[in-house]
Write a structure and sequence with these properties.
signal, 15 strands, Leu-bd, Rossmann fold, single chain, alpha/beta, BCAA_transport, 7-stranded mixed β-sheet, 2 domains, about 400 residues, 6-stranded mixed β-sheet, Branched-chain amino acid ABC transporter substrate-binding protein
Amino acid sequence: MDAPRLIRRQVHYLVVLVSVFLAGMAQAQETITIGINLPLSGARNEAGKNVKAGVELIREQVNAAGGVKIGGQSYTLQYVYGDNESEPQKAVSAALKLITVDKVVAIVGPIDSSRAIPAGNICNSFKTPMVSPTSTNPKTTLNRPFVFRACFLDNFQGEVMADFAITELKAEKAAVLFNVADAYPRGLAEFFKKSFEKQRGPGSVVAFEKFLSSEKDYSHYFEKIVASDADVLFIPQYSDEIPAIIKQARKNGWKKAIFGGDAWESSDLMAECGDVCKGLYFCSHFGAVGAKGKAKTFVEQFEKKNGRLPTANAALSYDSVDLVLTAISHLDSLGSNLLDTRRAIKDKLAAIRSFEGVSGSLDMNSTGDPTKSAVVLKINDKGEFESYKILNP
């Protein structure tokens, strides 16, 4: 091949490469990328599926409406997913990759406190805003100005469930069974005990039984609980653990009321638990059955798209993305400096007030902890999670 022809071909290739590069730059500038840190595998994968369904619904709705508006310009919303495999270390690894490799402007998730606490430390250290949909442990946001949540805290949840046990279930004495090695159930169990004994007196929590993650036989704990003569049993564990625990409780002679925390809620709970869970109560952030207003619209849209009712994980994940987008929409422009953009989003998140989400209204503050109500759900005779009572702060 002669030299001029070779040069022309090289120039042609160079022009093509530059065009592709510029097209990529233009596309990047017209896109908002949020990271989603969730359990797509492992013990909490069912909850992860609900999170993904919730965030995908709002992504489709936002893009169908013209995208995210910033200073008169529209941006397409896209996600990068990080599967934390229901493991704390994997949640940290996912956060690091989303921040440093994928260069997202913000992260939604993780959902569970045991994953959200270490991942939140990474996000705060790298000054990247993170919104956890359902991590209720106070440590998630403590002294972390870049970390937020869309849900109430465990101290509030512990208080309202203690009140519920006393006012609705007429309990004088209570028992608690929980995994001492996991941050979420341990924290919630302690807050419940503190609140219950504040009202009923020291020692009114007559059994406070701690087990380890490796244990699957709870018989000796239930022997103590039954012998304690408690009126109610509080089990603040995750939904994948509840069926086995409830069945063992009944098998070992516990015939009284059982109730739990927000991690009970999962779309597959009743498939595993069956009739033995009907009539039980748990605290939650959202009730699909009997929803009204914006929540009802969300339920209808979610059910149409997914063929099932949304759980609290889906609703709060939807709201978490909406919170990030609300903060972004209040920016004057999307600057070229990613660190400045992340910091600006953090500031706008902390300033959000009177936010109307599908899981209810909230006021955010600089600590990242919103003021929100809780809902007590009852598992009715149809196996549905039915709104029973709203408990306000």
